[in-house]
Each structure stands twice: as structure tokens, then as C-alpha cells.
Write a structure and sequence with these properties.
This protein is an alpha+beta fold. It is built from eight helices and twelve strands. The strands form four sheets. A six-stranded antiparallel beta barrel has the order 1-4-5-8-9-12. Strand 2 and strand 3 form a beta hairpin. The longest helix has 26 residues.
Length: 298
Amino acid sequence: MGVLFGFRSGWFIYSTAMIISLIGIWVSFKEKRKSSIALTVFLPIITYVLSCWWRWPYAGTFGFRPMIDFYPVLILPAAAFISAISLHKIFRIIFTLLFVFYIWLNFFQQFQFENSILHYSDMTPKAYVAIFGKSHVPPDFYSLLDPLDVEMALTGRPLRNKKFESLGCVTLNREIIKIKSCAGKYLSVDSDPNFFLINARSSVNKTGKFNLLMFDKNRCALEAWNVCYLFTLPGGEQGAQTDFVSADEAYDYINLGENKFALKSSNGKFLAIEPDEPSYVSASSPTIGERTIFQKEN
């Protein structure tokens, strides 16, 4: 039922207007009996098949994405429903108001998704209510989320996250941030297969927004746009390639004042802009210097 009514990425939660298509199948059953029977059989089967992927929320997407491929077919029963209610004035008025609301809701939620207000994979009923109709993230929003755990999803177990608490970290705060380097560029997680942390953008898009998790003892973690945590590779490179929680995903947060900070990796070195490869960031500096200082922006 999660793929249909779940707040993580449920089809009818984030594409509410598609309920009209289901009603339309019933409405058109007498006149279009064969096609209605075909859809009645087809829809449950395809929904089941699509939900069988171990990551049924389909990563960082808005709503139940694979159903979009079947919209050309589903528009037919929707048309039958619209045709039927158009014969009754009161139903026509009610439907028009509802349909306008559904269109607004879909566009507004798309705006929330693109601006990291509606979370891409961890939504819950309480989180949905907290941001409904809002153009900003409420202070307690992240405490209402239910983080997705890829490792558990692969085994078919409940989608619960392996908490940073297992590392002795106590989460104090979460916030969406942008990070600017001393070179005046914004950090972002590249969208190529390696998902490396780079320092190359003059403006911020989705790949340059991070969910900063602040822990006690001045420690932190950074969750990237692809629902993976930033971590230190053996060579010091910074990548966002895994959902798993280990010491490599936790950093020491050194507050330098005026929203400036430095990050110390699990290898004992500070994140720095590479001097020879200025577009890359790695844990390579033994001390805090100009290349290791970053600025946090909301």
C-alpha cells in the first residue's frame, strides 16, 4: 500500500488527480466493458510489479515515478469520468474546484521538492502536514522524517535507517545548507557515476544542497542530493556513494565564526580544495588554512 498511499512516495499522495482515472474505470464499465476489464486486471498487476523493486520509492524522485509511463492509457477513463459528470451542473462545479486544487497542489509540491522543502525519500504523515502549503522548512521538520536505509531495503526489511547513534553521535539539529569555498565557488556532488565532491559552481542547483546533520561533541554529517552521505575514500577523495553509516561519514565540525567552518575527516586530515585540481575537494590538509575554510549559507 505504500506505493499508492504512503507518504514516502505514494502515487495518490503526490499525484492525487489520478484517482479520477480509477473512478473513470468504474464509470465507463457499461459502455467500454472490455477496456474497463482490461484496465481493472492490468493496473493491479503493473502496480505490484513496479513495487517489487527493493527500492520502491525509486530513489530521490517526486512521487511514484514509473506510473508516468502509463498516463496515456489512464487518461481515457479520466475522460470518461469528466464526460459523465459534465451532464450534472453541481457535480461539474465540484469537480472543477477539486481539479483546480489538485493542479495547484501538484505544482506547489513540485516547487517544494525542487527547493528541498518536501524531502525526496523520507516523508511521513507528520512531516507532510508540517510543510503542507508552506514555502519554507519548519524548525522541527527533520525530526519528523523516517530515513531510508538501503541496506535493509535490499533484504526486504522495514525501511529504517542505521542511525548515527550507533557511532555514539546524538543528533542535535538538521538544516539544508549551501557551502561556498575560499575560491568563491559552491561545493556540489557531481552527478557522474562517481558522485565526487567538487568545487566548480558559481551558483547552486539541486546537486549543491546538503542536509547538514549536527551531532554532539562538534561532529556532523552531510547528506547529498542523491540520498547518500558524504564520506572519505581511501585516497582522501570525498564522495557521496552510500547510505551506510560508518565512521567515514562523520566529520569533526570546527566552527570558525561568521558561518565559516572546517571539516576534519576520519583520516585525521581536513577537507581542502586541491591545489593542482582546484575543482576537487579531498581530506588532504594536516592543518587549517585558506584552502580548508568553507562558508555555510542557508
